[in-house]
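Lecture notes, part 5. Sequence design as translation. It can be helpful to think of inverse folding as translation between two languages: the language of shapes and the language of residues. The source text, in C-alpha coordinates, appears below.
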Protein backbone atom coordinates (compact mmCIF):
# COMPACT_ATOMS: atom_id res chain seq x y z
CA UNK A 1 0.00 0.00 0.00
CA UNK A 2 1.27 3.48 -0.87
CA UNK A 3 1.95 5.31 2.39
CA UNK A 4 1.02 8.65 0.80
CA UNK A 5 -2.52 7.45 0.08
CA UNK A 6 -2.99 5.60 3.35
CA UNK A 7 -4.60 8.45 5.28
CA UNK A 8 -8.35 7.91 5.29
CA UNK A 9 -9.67 10.83 7.29
CA UNK A 10 -9.22 14.56 7.06
CA UNK A 11 -7.64 16.59 9.82
CA UNK A 12 -10.95 18.30 10.46
CA UNK A 13 -12.85 15.04 10.75
CA UNK A 14 -10.24 13.61 13.10
CA UNK A 15 -10.40 16.68 15.30
CA UNK A 16 -14.18 16.43 15.58
CA UNK A 17 -14.00 12.71 16.34
CA UNK A 18 -11.53 13.14 19.17
CA UNK A 19 -13.20 16.18 20.69
CA UNK A 20 -16.63 14.62 20.77
CA UNK A 21 -15.51 11.42 22.46
CA UNK A 22 -12.97 12.42 25.07
CA UNK A 23 -14.11 13.16 28.59
CA UNK A 24 -12.01 13.25 31.72
CA UNK A 25 -12.55 10.81 34.54
CA UNK A 26 -13.67 13.73 36.66
CA UNK A 27 -16.33 14.76 34.15
CA UNK A 28 -17.74 11.27 33.65
CA UNK A 29 -17.51 10.01 37.21
CA UNK A 30 -15.86 6.84 35.89
CA UNK A 31 -12.77 5.13 37.20
CA UNK A 32 -9.66 7.09 36.51
CA UNK A 33 -7.77 5.57 33.58
CA UNK A 34 -4.49 3.77 33.93
CA UNK A 35 -1.71 5.06 31.68
CA UNK A 36 0.86 3.16 29.63
CA UNK A 37 3.26 5.49 27.86
CA UNK A 38 5.56 3.48 25.57
CA UNK A 39 8.44 5.53 24.22
CA UNK A 40 11.00 4.06 21.84
CA UNK A 41 14.48 5.52 21.37
CA UNK A 42 15.31 6.95 17.89
CA UNK A 43 12.29 5.92 15.79
CA UNK A 44 11.10 8.09 12.89
CA UNK A 45 7.73 8.43 11.23
CA UNK A 46 6.58 6.59 9.10
CA UNK A 47 8.49 3.46 10.08
CA UNK A 48 5.67 1.18 11.18
CA UNK A 49 3.55 -1.23 9.22
CA UNK A 50 0.42 0.76 10.15
CA UNK A 51 1.79 3.55 7.94
CA UNK A 52 2.43 1.19 5.05
CA UNK A 53 6.18 0.68 5.54
CA UNK A 54 6.77 -2.57 3.58
CA UNK A 55 9.71 -4.08 5.48
CA UNK A 56 8.55 -3.55 9.07
CA UNK A 57 6.09 -5.70 11.01
CA UNK A 58 4.75 -3.83 14.05
CA UNK A 59 1.53 -5.76 14.84
CA UNK A 60 1.22 -4.39 18.36
CA UNK A 61 1.66 -0.74 17.40
CA UNK A 62 -0.79 -1.48 14.59
CA UNK A 63 -3.24 -2.96 17.09
CA UNK A 64 -3.13 0.17 19.23
CA UNK A 65 -3.75 2.21 16.07
CA UNK A 66 -6.59 -0.04 14.86
CA UNK A 67 -8.31 -0.10 18.25
CA UNK A 68 -7.59 3.59 18.74
CA UNK A 69 -6.29 6.46 16.62
CA UNK A 70 -3.25 6.59 14.37
CA UNK A 71 -1.55 10.00 14.35
CA UNK A 72 0.36 11.29 11.33
CA UNK A 73 1.74 14.64 12.52
CA UNK A 74 3.41 14.19 15.90
CA UNK A 75 6.61 16.09 16.67
CA UNK A 76 9.10 15.88 19.49
CA UNK A 77 10.11 19.05 21.34
CA UNK A 78 13.73 18.37 20.34
CA UNK A 79 15.46 15.87 18.04
CA UNK A 80 17.39 14.46 21.02
CA UNK A 81 16.27 12.10 23.75
CA UNK A 82 17.26 13.91 26.96
CA UNK A 83 15.78 17.37 26.19
CA UNK A 84 12.65 15.90 24.65
CA UNK A 85 12.03 13.62 27.62
CA UNK A 86 12.37 16.60 29.97
CA UNK A 87 9.94 18.60 27.82
CA UNK A 88 7.54 15.64 27.89
CA UNK A 89 7.58 15.42 31.68
CA UNK A 90 7.31 19.16 32.34
CA UNK A 91 5.03 20.19 29.48
CA UNK A 92 7.51 22.96 28.65
CA UNK A 93 9.67 23.76 25.64
CA UNK A 94 13.40 23.10 25.83
CA UNK A 95 14.16 26.83 26.07
CA UNK A 96 11.99 26.95 29.22
CA UNK A 97 13.76 24.27 31.28
CA UNK A 98 17.32 25.64 31.64
CA UNK A 99 19.98 22.89 31.76
CA UNK A 100 17.45 20.18 30.90
CA UNK A 101 17.06 21.78 27.47
CA UNK A 102 20.51 20.53 26.51
CA UNK A 103 21.48 16.91 26.00
CA UNK A 104 23.19 14.98 28.79
CA UNK A 105 23.11 17.76 31.37
CA UNK A 106 21.23 18.38 34.64
CA UNK A 107 17.46 18.33 35.23
CA UNK A 108 16.70 21.24 37.60
CA UNK A 109 13.80 20.72 39.99
CA UNK A 110 11.61 23.86 39.99
CA UNK A 111 9.37 22.46 37.24
CA UNK A 112 6.43 20.20 38.17
CA UNK A 113 6.36 16.92 36.22
CA UNK A 114 3.20 15.06 35.33
CA UNK A 115 4.42 11.86 36.97
CA UNK A 116 4.68 13.51 40.40
CA UNK A 117 1.29 15.17 39.97
CA UNK A 118 -0.30 11.83 39.13
CA UNK A 119 1.33 10.28 42.19
CA UNK A 120 0.11 13.11 44.41
CA UNK A 121 -3.42 12.27 43.24
CA UNK A 122 -3.25 8.58 44.07
CA UNK A 123 -1.60 7.06 41.00
CA UNK A 124 1.04 4.36 41.32
CA UNK A 125 3.87 5.59 39.09
CA UNK A 126 6.86 3.74 37.66
CA UNK A 127 9.11 3.18 34.68
CA UNK A 128 11.54 0.72 33.22
CA UNK A 129 14.96 1.26 31.64
CA UNK A 130 15.20 4.72 30.07
CA UNK A 131 13.19 7.31 31.94
CA UNK A 132 14.59 10.82 31.82
CA UNK A 133 18.15 10.68 30.58
CA UNK A 134 20.95 10.71 29.82
CA UNK A 135 21.86 13.25 32.46
CA UNK A 136 22.18 13.83 36.19
CA UNK A 137 18.85 14.20 37.97
CA UNK A 138 20.40 13.97 41.44
CA UNK A 139 22.28 17.24 40.92
CA UNK A 140 18.96 18.81 40.02
CA UNK A 141 17.57 18.01 43.45
CA UNK A 142 15.48 14.94 42.58
CA UNK A 143 15.34 11.94 44.91
CA UNK A 144 14.59 9.62 41.99
CA UNK A 145 14.36 9.71 38.23
CA UNK A 146 11.59 12.17 37.29
CA UNK A 147 9.86 9.38 35.35
CA UNK A 148 9.01 7.66 38.65
CA UNK A 149 10.06 4.58 40.59
CA UNK A 150 12.30 2.30 38.56
CA UNK A 151 11.43 -1.32 37.72
CA UNK A 152 14.42 -2.74 35.82
CA UNK A 153 15.60 -5.74 37.84
CA UNK A 154 14.38 -8.44 35.46
CA UNK A 155 16.97 -9.34 32.83
CA UNK A 156 16.87 -11.57 29.77
CA UNK A 157 18.80 -14.81 29.89
CA UNK A 158 18.74 -14.95 26.10
CA UNK A 159 18.45 -12.08 23.63
CA UNK A 160 18.81 -11.89 19.86
CA UNK A 161 22.14 -10.07 20.09
CA UNK A 162 24.22 -7.89 22.37
CA UNK A 163 22.99 -4.88 20.37
CA UNK A 164 19.68 -4.97 22.28
CA UNK A 165 19.54 -4.35 26.02
CA UNK A 166 19.17 -7.26 28.40
CA UNK A 167 16.29 -5.49 30.17
CA UNK A 168 13.19 -7.67 30.06
CA UNK A 169 10.94 -4.66 29.66
CA UNK A 170 7.69 -6.60 29.70
CA UNK A 171 8.64 -8.70 32.74
CA UNK A 172 9.52 -5.52 34.61
CA UNK A 173 6.11 -4.12 33.70
CA UNK A 174 4.54 -7.20 35.24
CA UNK A 175 6.58 -6.63 38.41
CA UNK A 176 5.24 -3.08 38.44
CA UNK A 177 1.66 -4.35 38.10
CA UNK A 178 2.14 -6.83 40.93
CA UNK A 179 3.55 -4.07 43.16
CA UNK A 180 0.69 -1.63 42.71
CA UNK A 181 -1.68 -1.00 45.61
CA UNK A 182 -5.08 -2.60 45.24
CA UNK A 183 -7.54 -0.48 43.27
CA UNK A 184 -5.02 2.32 42.65
CA UNK A 185 -4.78 3.64 39.09
CA UNK A 186 -1.30 3.41 37.65
CA UNK A 187 0.97 5.20 35.21
CA UNK A 188 3.89 3.35 33.63
CA UNK A 189 6.64 4.71 31.38
CA UNK A 190 8.01 2.00 29.09
CA UNK A 191 11.38 3.52 28.17
CA UNK A 192 12.72 1.19 25.53
CA UNK A 193 16.38 1.62 24.54
CA UNK A 194 15.75 0.37 21.01
CA UNK A 195 16.16 1.17 18.14
CA UNK A 196 19.09 3.25 19.43
CA UNK A 197 22.48 2.36 17.97
CA UNK A 198 24.37 0.09 17.73
CA UNK A 199 22.80 -2.73 15.65
CA UNK A 200 23.79 -6.30 14.96
CA UNK A 201 24.95 -6.16 11.37
CA UNK A 202 22.79 -8.34 9.15
CA UNK A 203 20.03 -8.83 11.73
CA UNK A 204 17.38 -7.51 9.35
CA UNK A 205 18.35 -9.86 6.55
CA UNK A 206 18.50 -12.73 9.04
CA UNK A 207 14.83 -12.09 9.78
CA UNK A 208 14.04 -12.53 6.08
CA UNK A 209 13.62 -8.85 5.25
CA UNK A 210 13.97 -7.92 1.60
CA UNK A 211 16.54 -5.18 1.03
CA UNK A 212 15.20 -4.52 -2.46
CA UNK A 213 11.91 -3.28 -0.99
CA UNK A 214 13.40 -0.80 1.47
CA UNK A 215 12.32 2.82 1.02
CA UNK A 216 15.60 4.72 1.35
CA UNK A 217 15.05 8.37 2.39
CA UNK A 218 16.19 10.74 -0.35
CA UNK A 219 18.78 12.37 1.94
CA UNK A 220 20.70 9.07 2.17
CA UNK A 221 22.59 7.38 -0.69
CA UNK A 222 20.84 4.29 -2.00
CA UNK A 223 23.53 1.64 -1.64
CA UNK A 224 23.33 -2.03 -0.61
CA UNK A 225 25.11 -1.21 2.65
CA UNK A 226 22.62 1.58 3.43
CA UNK A 227 19.68 -0.71 2.76
CA UNK A 228 21.14 -3.29 5.14
CA UNK A 229 21.66 -0.64 7.82
CA UNK A 230 18.03 0.39 7.48
CA UNK A 231 16.91 -3.24 7.75
CA UNK A 232 18.87 -3.61 10.99
CA UNK A 233 17.17 -0.45 12.31
CA UNK A 234 13.80 -1.93 11.35
CA UNK A 235 14.66 -5.12 13.22
CA UNK A 236 15.13 -3.19 16.48
CA UNK A 237 11.84 -1.36 16.00
CA UNK A 238 10.26 -4.79 15.96
CA UNK A 239 12.02 -5.63 19.25
CA UNK A 240 10.32 -2.64 20.84
CA UNK A 241 7.00 -3.73 19.34
CA UNK A 242 7.40 -7.27 20.69
CA UNK A 243 7.69 -6.01 24.28
CA UNK A 244 4.77 -3.65 23.72
CA UNK A 245 2.69 -6.68 22.73
CA UNK A 246 3.63 -8.53 25.90
CA UNK A 247 2.60 -5.50 27.96
CA UNK A 248 -0.78 -5.29 26.23
CA UNK A 249 -1.27 -9.00 26.91
CA UNK A 250 -0.42 -8.49 30.60
CA UNK A 251 -3.04 -5.76 30.85
CA UNK A 252 -5.59 -8.05 29.21
CA UNK A 253 -4.84 -10.85 31.66
CA UNK A 254 -5.62 -8.63 34.66
CA UNK A 255 -8.66 -7.05 33.00
CA UNK A 256 -7.20 -3.54 32.84
CA UNK A 257 -6.51 -3.04 29.14
CA UNK A 258 -9.75 -1.27 28.33
CA UNK A 259 -9.35 1.10 31.26
CA UNK A 260 -5.83 2.05 30.20
CA UNK A 261 -4.88 5.02 28.07
CA UNK A 262 -2.09 3.66 25.87
CA UNK A 263 0.21 6.07 24.02
CA UNK A 264 2.98 4.64 21.83
CA UNK A 265 5.61 6.89 20.28
CA UNK A 266 9.33 7.74 20.16
CA UNK A 267 11.63 10.34 21.69
CA UNK A 268 13.22 11.53 18.42
CA UNK A 269 14.04 10.43 14.91
CA UNK A 270 16.15 7.68 13.41
CA UNK A 271 19.91 7.56 14.17
CA UNK A 272 21.09 8.32 10.65
CA UNK A 273 22.85 11.33 9.10
CA UNK A 274 20.54 14.39 8.70
CA UNK A 275 17.89 12.75 10.89
CA UNK A 276 18.45 12.43 14.66
CA UNK A 277 19.80 15.66 16.22
CA UNK A 278 18.46 17.66 13.25
CA UNK A 279 15.33 19.81 13.01
CA UNK A 280 14.36 18.27 9.69
CA UNK A 281 11.39 15.91 9.43
CA UNK A 282 13.28 12.71 10.14
CA UNK A 283 14.73 14.22 13.31
CA UNK A 284 11.51 15.40 14.95
CA UNK A 285 8.58 13.70 13.17
CA UNK A 286 7.70 10.48 15.02
CA UNK A 287 5.02 7.76 14.97
CA UNK A 288 2.18 7.78 17.48
CA UNK A 289 -0.87 5.62 18.16
CA UNK A 290 -3.33 6.11 21.03
CA UNK A 291 -5.82 3.59 22.43
CA UNK A 292 -8.48 4.37 25.04
CA UNK A 293 -11.79 2.56 24.44
CA UNK A 294 -14.86 4.71 24.77
CA UNK A 295 -12.77 7.88 24.70
CA UNK A 296 -10.64 7.69 21.57
CA UNK A 297 -12.22 6.72 18.28
CA UNK A 298 -11.31 3.21 17.13
CA UNK A 299 -9.93 2.92 13.61
CA UNK A 300 -9.56 6.67 13.17
CA UNK A 301 -6.60 8.59 11.82
CA UNK A 302 -5.57 12.13 12.63
CA UNK A 303 -3.47 14.66 10.76
CA UNK A 304 -3.66 17.10 13.67
CA UNK A 305 -0.36 18.69 14.68
CA UNK A 306 0.74 17.34 18.06
CA UNK A 307 3.81 18.23 20.13
CA UNK A 308 5.41 16.21 22.90
CA UNK A 309 4.98 19.35 24.99
CA UNK A 310 1.26 18.43 24.90
CA UNK A 311 1.62 14.98 26.47
CA UNK A 312 1.83 16.00 30.13
CA UNK A 313 -1.31 18.11 30.02
CA UNK A 314 -3.11 15.42 28.00
CA UNK A 315 -2.43 12.77 30.64
CA UNK A 316 -3.36 15.04 33.54
CA UNK A 317 -6.55 16.06 31.75
CA UNK A 318 -7.50 12.42 31.16
CA UNK A 319 -6.97 11.72 34.87
CA UNK A 320 -9.11 14.70 35.89
CA UNK A 321 -6.19 16.61 37.39
CA UNK A 322 -5.74 20.34 36.90
CA UNK A 323 -2.44 21.08 35.19
CA UNK A 324 -0.16 23.72 36.72
CA UNK A 325 0.27 27.03 34.91
CA UNK A 326 3.89 26.09 34.20
CA UNK A 327 2.71 23.63 31.55
CA UNK A 328 2.29 25.35 28.19
CA UNK A 329 0.98 22.44 26.12
CA UNK A 330 -2.57 21.50 25.19
CA UNK A 331 -4.50 18.26 25.56
CA UNK A 332 -4.32 16.75 22.10
CA UNK A 333 -7.33 14.53 22.81
CA UNK A 334 -9.91 17.25 23.40
CA UNK A 335 -8.57 20.47 21.91
CA UNK A 336 -8.92 21.78 18.36
CA UNK A 337 -5.99 21.14 16.07
CA UNK A 338 -3.10 23.57 16.48
CA UNK A 339 -1.95 25.82 13.64
CA UNK A 340 1.67 24.93 14.29
CA UNK A 341 4.11 23.17 16.61
CA UNK A 342 7.54 24.36 17.73
CA UNK A 343 10.76 22.39 17.97
CA UNK A 344 14.33 23.30 18.85
CA UNK A 345 17.77 22.10 19.77
CA UNK A 346 20.87 23.22 21.62
CA UNK A 347 23.95 21.09 22.28
CA UNK A 348 23.78 17.41 21.41
CA UNK A 349 27.06 15.61 22.09
CA UNK A 350 30.45 17.21 22.79
CA UNK A 351 31.08 17.83 19.11
CA UNK A 352 32.65 21.29 18.83
CA UNK A 353 35.45 23.44 20.21
CA UNK A 354 34.59 24.73 23.71
CA UNK A 355 31.73 22.20 23.93
CA UNK A 356 29.52 24.50 21.88
CA UNK A 357 26.13 23.44 20.54
CA UNK A 358 24.29 24.04 17.30
CA UNK A 359 21.28 26.07 18.42
CA UNK A 360 18.17 26.10 16.27
CA UNK A 361 14.46 26.74 16.48
CA UNK A 362 11.73 25.63 14.10
CA UNK A 363 8.04 26.03 13.40
CA UNK A 364 6.06 23.34 11.59
CA UNK A 365 2.63 23.91 10.04
CA UNK A 366 0.60 21.49 7.95
CA UNK A 367 2.35 22.76 4.82
CA UNK A 368 5.73 24.18 5.77
CA UNK A 369 8.76 23.77 7.99
CA UNK A 370 10.79 26.88 8.79
CA UNK A 371 14.12 26.46 10.60
CA UNK A 372 16.16 29.25 12.17
CA UNK A 373 19.79 28.17 12.49
CA UNK A 374 20.93 30.55 15.21
CA UNK A 375 24.68 30.05 14.65
CA UNK A 376 25.08 29.27 10.93
CA UNK A 377 28.85 29.79 11.14
CA UNK A 378 29.16 26.51 13.08
CA UNK A 379 29.26 23.03 11.60
CA UNK A 380 25.79 21.49 12.16
CA UNK A 381 26.98 17.92 12.76
CA UNK A 382 29.98 18.91 14.86
CA UNK A 383 33.48 20.06 13.98
CA UNK A 384 35.04 18.21 11.02
CA UNK A 385 37.27 16.28 13.40
CA UNK A 386 34.67 13.51 13.65
CA UNK A 387 31.29 15.17 13.05
CA UNK A 388 30.42 13.66 16.42
CA UNK A 389 26.77 14.75 16.47
CA UNK A 390 26.13 11.82 14.11
CA UNK A 391 26.11 8.43 15.83
CA UNK A 392 28.84 6.10 14.66
CA UNK A 393 27.26 3.70 12.18
CA UNK A 394 27.54 2.20 8.69
CA UNK A 395 25.35 5.01 7.31
CA UNK A 396 27.77 7.63 8.63
CA UNK A 397 30.73 5.74 7.14
CA UNK A 398 29.00 5.65 3.76
CA UNK A 399 28.11 9.36 3.75
CA UNK A 400 31.59 10.43 4.88
CA UNK A 401 33.49 7.97 2.71
CA UNK A 402 34.89 10.60 0.36
CA UNK A 403 33.40 8.85 -2.64
CA UNK A 404 32.39 11.48 -5.20
CA UNK A 405 29.14 9.62 -5.77
CA UNK A 406 27.96 10.54 -2.26
CA UNK A 407 29.25 14.12 -2.15
CA UNK A 408 25.79 15.73 -2.17
CA UNK A 409 24.69 13.46 0.70
CA UNK A 410 27.79 14.47 2.65
CA UNK A 411 26.97 18.13 2.04
CA UNK A 412 23.39 17.61 3.21
CA UNK A 413 24.55 15.81 6.35
CA UNK A 414 27.52 17.87 7.52
CA UNK A 415 27.85 20.99 5.37
CA UNK A 416 27.22 24.43 6.84
CA UNK A 417 23.67 25.66 6.54
CA UNK A 418 22.11 29.09 5.97
CA UNK A 419 20.49 30.93 8.84
CA UNK A 420 17.02 30.46 7.37
CA UNK A 421 15.59 27.29 5.83
CA UNK A 422 12.07 26.82 4.46
CA UNK A 423 10.61 23.60 3.11
CA UNK A 424 7.25 22.82 1.49
CA UNK A 425 6.65 19.53 3.25
CA UNK A 426 4.04 17.97 0.97
CA UNK A 427 6.30 18.38 -2.07
CA UNK A 428 9.59 17.94 -0.21
CA UNK A 429 9.14 15.56 2.75
CA UNK A 430 12.89 14.96 2.96
CA UNK A 431 13.67 18.70 3.36
CA UNK A 432 16.16 19.02 0.51
CA UNK A 433 14.90 22.08 -1.41
CA UNK A 434 15.39 25.26 0.63
CA UNK A 435 12.87 27.91 -0.47
CA UNK A 436 14.07 30.65 1.87
CA UNK A 437 15.79 32.68 -0.87
CA UNK A 438 13.05 32.33 -3.49
CA UNK A 439 11.08 35.55 -3.97
CA UNK A 440 7.80 33.72 -4.42
CA UNK A 441 8.06 32.33 -0.89
CA UNK A 442 9.07 35.55 0.89
CA UNK A 443 5.56 36.06 2.35
CA UNK A 444 5.57 32.52 3.76
CA UNK A 445 9.07 32.93 5.17
CA UNK A 446 8.27 36.29 6.76
CA UNK A 447 5.04 35.00 8.29
CA UNK A 448 6.59 31.88 9.80
CA UNK A 449 9.65 33.72 11.06
CA UNK A 450 7.45 36.33 12.72
CA UNK A 451 5.21 33.69 14.30
CA UNK A 452 8.18 31.69 15.56
CA UNK A 453 10.01 34.66 17.01
CA UNK A 454 6.84 36.06 18.59
CA UNK A 455 6.18 32.72 20.31
CA UNK A 456 9.80 32.46 21.48
CA UNK A 457 9.74 35.97 22.94
CA UNK A 458 6.48 35.26 24.73
CA UNK A 459 7.85 32.01 26.13
CA UNK A 460 11.01 33.65 27.45
CA UNK A 461 13.56 31.97 25.18
CA UNK A 462 17.02 33.27 26.20
CA UNK A 463 17.95 33.28 22.50
CA UNK A 464 15.40 36.06 22.02
CA UNK A 465 16.20 38.01 25.18
CA UNK A 466 19.92 38.70 24.94
CA UNK A 467 21.38 35.91 27.04
CA UNK A 468 21.34 32.91 24.72
CA UNK A 469 24.96 32.07 25.54
CA UNK A 470 23.68 30.64 28.83
CA UNK A 471 23.01 27.39 26.93
CA UNK A 472 26.72 27.10 26.07
CA UNK A 473 27.63 27.28 29.78
CA UNK A 474 25.55 24.31 30.89
CA UNK A 475 27.50 21.21 31.93
CA UNK A 476 27.63 17.98 30.05
CA UNK A 477 27.76 14.99 32.39
CA UNK A 478 28.26 12.43 29.62
CA UNK A 479 31.41 11.66 27.66
CA UNK A 480 33.70 14.57 26.69
CA UNK A 481 36.23 14.78 23.83
CA UNK A 482 39.24 16.89 24.89
CA UNK A 483 40.84 16.53 21.44
CA UNK A 484 38.27 18.99 20.06
CA UNK A 485 39.94 21.78 22.01
CA UNK A 486 38.77 24.46 24.39
CA UNK A 487 36.61 23.75 27.43
CA UNK A 488 36.17 20.02 28.04
CA UNK A 489 35.49 19.61 31.76
CA UNK A 490 32.94 16.88 32.26
CA UNK A 491 30.08 17.88 34.54
CA UNK A 492 31.29 21.48 34.94
CA UNK A 493 29.78 24.81 33.92
CA UNK A 494 31.76 26.69 31.29
CA UNK A 495 32.44 30.12 32.87
CA UNK A 496 33.35 31.64 29.49
CA UNK A 497 29.69 31.59 28.46
CA UNK A 498 28.00 32.32 31.78
CA UNK A 499 25.63 35.26 31.41
CA UNK A 500 23.02 36.68 33.73
CA UNK A 501 19.41 37.05 32.74
CA UNK A 502 18.76 40.75 32.01
Amino acid sequence: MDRRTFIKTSAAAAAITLQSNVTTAQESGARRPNILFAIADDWSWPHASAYGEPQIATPNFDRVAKEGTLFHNVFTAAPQCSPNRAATLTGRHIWQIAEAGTHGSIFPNPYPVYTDLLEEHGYFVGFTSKGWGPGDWKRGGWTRNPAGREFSDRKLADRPSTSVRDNDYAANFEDFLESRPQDAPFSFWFGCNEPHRSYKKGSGRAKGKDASKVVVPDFLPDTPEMRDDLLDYFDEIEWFDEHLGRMLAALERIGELDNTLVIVSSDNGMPFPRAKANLYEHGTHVPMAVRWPGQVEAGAESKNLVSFVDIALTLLNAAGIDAPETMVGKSFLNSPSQDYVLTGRERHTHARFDNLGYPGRAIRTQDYLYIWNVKPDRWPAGDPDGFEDIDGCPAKDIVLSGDSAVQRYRDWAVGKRPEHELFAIKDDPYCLNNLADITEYEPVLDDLRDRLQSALREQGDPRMHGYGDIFESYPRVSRMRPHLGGFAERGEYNPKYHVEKP
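The translated text above is only one of many valid answers, since several sequences can fold into similar shapes. The two ends are 55 Å apart (CA to CA).
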